[in-house]
Amino acid sequence: MRFPRSLAVFPLLVVMALAATGARAQTNDAGLPTFPDLQKLRDDLAQPPTSAPPSQGPFGEQPPVPSQTEHPAPPADAPSPWLITPQVQVSETVTDNAQFAQANRQADLQTFLNPSIGVAGDTNLAKVDLNYSPVLLRNVVDTSGDRIDQNLFGTGTFTAVPDAVFINTRASASEGSRSGSFGPINPADLRIGDRTQVLAYDAGPEWRFPLVEDATGDLRYSIGQTRFYDNTGAVLSSANGQPLVNTDISDGTLQDLRLYLDSGDRGRLIAAQFTAEGTRDRISNGGGTDDNGTIMIESQLRLSPVFQLLGSAGYEDLRYSNFTFADQNDPTWYAGFRWQNAEDSYIQLTYGHRQGIDSFAGQLHVPVTPLTAAFAEYGESITTPQQQILNNLNNSQLTATNVVINPQSGLPQALVVNELALQNSLYRDRDFRAGLITQNQPNLYTVDVRYEDYIPIAGSVGSDSYVGVEGRWNHAINETTDFTMNGGYFIRQQFDEDTVLFQTSLSRFMTPSLIGSIGYEFDYGTSNIGARSYYRDAVTAYLRKTF
What we know:
Elements: H1 6-20, H2 36-45, E1 82-95, E2 108-122, E3 126-132, E4 135-139, E5 147-149, E6 152-161, E7 165-177, E8 195-210, E9 216-229, E10 235-236, E11 243-245, E12 252-262, E13 270-283, E14 288-302, E15 307-320, E16 328-342, E17 345-354, E18 357-367, E19 372-383, H3 385-394, E20 397-398, E21 404-405, E22 426-440, E23 443-458, E24 464-476, E25 481-492, E26 497-511, E27 514-526, E28 534-546
């Protein structure tokens, strides 16, 4: 296959022109160059965890103990505890394949208008982080692809009774791929017939109370929903009518009630926790109701200041209204260890039985060298797409530059897995992620490896899996100019599909509040369904103004 070269020439010319323009250097007190923009990126991508990994069991789907929202507070000298940041970005994209088509590839000029507003507040009564960023797309040639995408991520903790009663809220809106195989590609570029708007939100009260000495308790209730709009039915191939997605995707409602008691460190030797939790996951349109009741006691035995033995025993009752043969009534347990010598340096590994399966689980975040940190996490669970989206929402955080990240790894977090199909199913999910982050001014390097598979427990959906790797290099040329190169390669089991992404861009601060960028992107996909294969070149330039 011969790829067009003309589109690649244009960004090179612009890069040369921007690079030839002088930039004002910035130095510190010692006269050495500094890179504040790179430092901001480093702070976003490589910040330490905001809390310890979950202690309620070794399984990845369980959220950490409820805590007040962690977020960057406004500067101490700010005139108000509320920081409101409006922004607008205008992008122009020239592409030779606007709809990622295999045949009848249509070139187009695309205009993206992206206003946004960020809100960060930190008072005695409210802690809020929110970013709303809709995207308006207009095409010159194929106007059938014109649309408005809704993008939102927000968290809030509101105090009803100081140090005792709180209201926790979270919400997100994003685009998801119905048929999958778009893992590394920006959701803004999803095919018009393959994109589904995903709305997720969760809210509820929480009561924190003291027990004896340093023992504490936490009781909370939450109700969350996932809602889907556009392309929610079965999806067929445009080439031969072969099913790409067998079932609909329906709205879901998840309710959770949890009591958590923590003994605290008893003599700095032993600690214990008691958890009683009940959840109900109800899928609309005949999707059924899943009920889960769990009682669990956990303990940690500290053998040294940095090493603990972990153990747990409990019982659970799982009931599935549509698939009673999958019900489980089992004791649960796990055993393992935890090593931690700093807030951002720990290793935890456990093996146990829960939800009818035996499995390992673990988290790792350790410095390998003074410049490089490694991270890894693995977990298994029985879940649904609706429940998984809410779990991702509850385990994500918004940074100061409005990037949604996983606070354990510090890397960007997608709430919807765009590499696998989005459809009603009950499945065993196995999820692994690992990588390296290297900071060597003026460079930052990241490598991120992922594996996930769905093993159906019930329903007509088949098994599926993917493995992918992404890498990124960011180089601060000087105080005002950054160069970025990143790429990704994903392999999916279903339809034997491969996806390749390569991007490079040059960004420059023209003023402290105005940034311009020019970049080139190449996308390539193969599939045993010919109509799903494609290649695409695109050149994008944008201006972004912060007010």
